[in-house]
Design a protein that fits this description.
single chain; mainly beta; 1 helix; 3% helix; globular; disordered C terminus
Length: 165
């Protein structure tokens, strides 16, 4: 059990402060603040993963991971994840292409229907939400393809797909 102190909208515990809203059992709401920036929380720097038969994801190093597949690989269960942490994997085929990616036993979702682009040097993104309470990692897949488009040099009214599409 935690003891919180509230003073004019600021709720703190000892020397730490957090962001969000707090509902106290009596129905009183308070505003919570934090000293850490959003960028520090999401750790958006790119972590290059080591290509190996079993790819290891050290979640304490960030939330955005890049890997160039040099063969058929298994994405091992993430380590040291925080509950609710969102992971983004940038999966890049090597110059040969045609590489496959399987998932560790704690990943959940429609994993059998995830098919990577097979062309040489092609790029795919996979999102994962960590549930450390249940010790499961949910792969998020959308039927909507949100690809980057840029104006065509032939005309400003048209768009073109990136070369990796």
């Amino acid at each position: 059990m935690h003891e919180f102190v509230a003073k004019k909208g600021l709720i703190s515990q000892g020397n730490s402060q957090v962001t969000g809203s707090l509902k106290v059992s009596s129905g009183i709401y308070g505003r919570l603040y934090d000293t850490a920036s959003y960028a520090e929380k999401v750790k958006s720097v790119v972590t290059n993963l080591i290509d190996a038969p079993n790819i290891i994801t050290p979640c304490e190093s960030g939330s955005y991971f890049r890997i160039v597949l040099g063969g058929d690989r298994i994405l091992s269960n993430p380590s040291n994840a925080e509950d609710g942490q969102r992971l983004v994997y940038q999966i890049i085929q090597d110059s040969a292409g045609g590489r496959t990616l399987a998932f560790g036993n704690k990943f959940r979702g429609d994993l059998n229907n995830i098919v990577l682009s097979s062309g040489p040097n092609s790029v795919d993104f996979i999102g994962v939400i960590c549930d450390t309470i249940r010790d499961e990692y949910y792969v998020t897949v959308s039927d909507i393809c949100l690809l980057y488009t840029s104006p065509s040099p032939r005309g400003r009214t048209r768009s073109r797909m990136p070369s990796s599409a």
